[in-house]
Amino acid sequence: MSEKLLEIKKLQTKFSTRFGQVMAVRGIDFAVEKGDCIGIVGESGSGKTVTALSVMRLIEKPGMIAGGEILYRGEDLLKKSEKEMGKVRGKKIAMVFQDPTTSFNPAYTMGNQLIETIKRNMGVSRRDATGLAKEVLYSVGLPEPEKRMKQYPHELSTGMRQRVAVAMALSGEPDLLIADEPTSALDVTIQAKILKLFEKIKMEKELSMIIITHDLGVAAEACNKILIMYGGLIMESGSARDVLTNPMHPYTKGLLGSVPGINSNPSGRLNTIEGSPPDPIKPGPGCPFSERCPHAMKICGLKIPELHKTENAGLSMCWLLDEKAPRHSLEEFLGGDRA
Ligand code: SF4
Fold first, then answer.
1. Which is the closest atom of ligand 1 to the Cα of 300?
2. What is the pTM of this model?
3. Of 214, 211, 215, 136, whose CA–CA distance to 178 is shortest?
4. How confident is the model over 206-258, as pLDDT tens digits?
5. 190 alpha-carbon distance from chain centroid
6. Can you spell out the DSSP letters for 131-173?
7. Separation of 327 CA from ligand 1 center, angstroms?
């Protein structure tokens, strides 16, 4: 039987700005089972990074988690003290950030930073931490690890720095690794190597993963499940194969049409999704994609659709899947019999 590692229920995260409240995450639900690699895919501003930071409880003021539950092995992380969260971060759930440059202090050698992290995470002596640091650097395939440990961050290539960042994240032996755009600062060749590395460590260390990406190609390569986020909500979710080969949501279809090689337009031309994402301060009462959706109906601008089960056993938040939704007129919806 599958084991639920993480369960997100009705998560809401918002930020106060001088223009008003930005609802970055508007009540989302999903679960990570042991062994899953979940791709959270969306454009910038869709809420995917805020979701990851919320799980880590790293939302800083003026942001706040406004509601919901984040259950790690059944315990709500939102009820834990900061001290208790210190035992979760790095040891149970670890995170790798987009830009490996910012993960390190330029004034200390890579070895020093890795050893200090291991000492803190594992509570071992400096000598033991040094041995573990070499082991974990070998495990992420960093060439000449002993030499790299003596070097400063600027002396390593971006790809090498990202490997050390992954090593650092793995050093606490977490159950769940969250990687936020882990390959977007890398060129295509290094990107492929980092994705291979994720596959290897997932197998070897029985790690579960969440990969946050704007790139459906990355999710297609690495993940077994995909969540598509837009406007702070999950538009569609399901197995990677189903979402990629038989998408049910118009936004997913639009995204797929804009990725070369995945289900793209048979003419060979890439589609673009016209229009801009919704205003996060005044998102409107309806489907967040309604202003860009080629299938939008009156009801779409008035009410957020519920998540419907798709024929693929996934979920899609779209009125098109509601047989009782009025296809055209608002009057029909307001006066009609929806029983
Ligand atoms: Fe398009 Fe309406 Fe479905 Fe939203 S609910 S994706 S606007 S058809």
1. 2
2. 0.90
3. 211
4. 899 999 999 999 999 999 999 999 999 999 999 999 999 999 999 999 999 87
5. 20
6. HHHHHHHHHTT-SSHHHHHTS-GGGS-HHHHHHHHHHHHHTT-
7. 11
